[in-house]
Amino acid sequence: MLGVDLDLSSLTTVLNDVDARLRAETGPARMWPTGFSALDEVLSGGLRGGNLILLTGAQGLGKTTMAVQMARNAARSGRHVLYFCYEHDAQSILERVLALEIGEQNDPQSADLVRVRQAFEGVDHGFGGLAERMTDVRGAIPALGRIMEYADRLHVHNSSGNTTTMTVITNAVEQVWRQTGEAPMVVVDYLQKVKLDGGSDVEAERVTVVVEGLKDLSLDAKVPVLAIVAADKEGLETGKRLRAQHLRGSTALAYEADVLLVLAHKYQIIARHHLVFDSGAAERWKDWAVVSVEKNRNGRDGVDLEFRKRFDQSRYEQDGSMVAEKLVDERLYVE
Q1: Was domain 28-322 assigned CATH 3.40.50.300?
Q2: What's this model's pTM, rounded to 2 decimal places?
């Protein structure tokens, strides 16, 4: 007699599981909102459990800024998030979160990221703890209060390219799951830095193993995995818009991803005729970033959205919109 394969599920079992889950959950099943309303609409509600989402773009485009903001938004909505940070430590992430919380109050006299960092590092000429050092900053104390409402749901892993492997990532997810009773949304900043347990020295082969591991993690834990991905040299230097084929390391990146988001400076990809009739437009567009939904297995793709950059406050303004102007494949650099 053949043994029972526990990986098999009849549709009856799946229907019963879905019905039980929907009755138990208070919000949309398996959905983590990004907090960017225009993007959530295109993604049919947000980041979906079981999906691998890749975020790419050139340096200085705010990939970490957007990832941290999405993580904060998911935690604020009541979900647990585990942020694997290969580029910054946990304090740096907290500084960014505090700056964006203060900045969202839209007070022109509120603190920027530089002021927040001065307080954290104790070089602000103040006294006492963090709250005391921020009392002169409008909106800072209420912002700290808002952070405390979700701080225990946003977990930061101080990751290292020398030690943090897929095994470490999986074990950390399981640890948060045991401690909280909920599988967390996973953010990896960034994918090419994940250390491979043994194996090849060839980057393409390493990246293939990592991206397949992250995809399996999203399916096994039924959570979204958001990974920042570096672009290759060709994608950054050819003068073309960054596309799926420019992800650094392996063609498996574009294949395994359920959603691919590409960041670009708006002023670099705007059609030339917009500048001919409005010479001052390029300067205005430098304050805007375009998020292109290059791939989306859950709905529309080929969609270009724009969001205003507020990098002094470590954030984007979340009320974005569809890009009205015509974009081109060739970048147009305006000095």
Answers
A1: yes
A2: 0.88
